[in-house]
Amino acid sequence: MTSVQHEFISGRTLDLQRSCTGRELTASGVDMCHIAVSVIIPLWNGERYLGECLHSVLSQTLQNIEVIIIDDASMDGSMVLADSYAARDARIKVLHLHEKQGASVARNLGLERARAEFIAFMDSDDRYPSVDVLEQLYSKARATGAQMVGPKCMGTVSLSLRLFLWMMQVE
After folding, report:
1. CA distance 145 to 35
2. Which residue has the higher pLDDT, 12 or 54?
């Protein structure tokens, strides 16, 4: 059985280890030392939709991703559900906040933990419109050298699609 990758955060002391030595392969053979996109999902009482959200992320054709879920002191079953997904998929990390701090703080904590070249933010009640949206955006950003890409780059514009990637500054 895989151990759940999570941590509890009460203060702002963070281990910002971004380096990777050797190869870290998931059970499905994804090399976690070469992560293309970190998908950051702030979570507060999102048990109702979290399963659909994570299914749409984990079903992406771009497999070398990490998913960082920041549980903002949820009071429903969100924490348990997030941990159960993390136990099944090594690409998922769960951070649990002891008290509610809001989506902005949660996103910033996710940014501090992200190891990928690009970042995608997603809310726990969102779903990607197709299984290849991350791959399309990542490919477009790499091909053009863009630091930020969005759905208009793919020929679609949707006001409800809040999906953007941008280059992280990794030291």
Report:
1. 17
2. 54
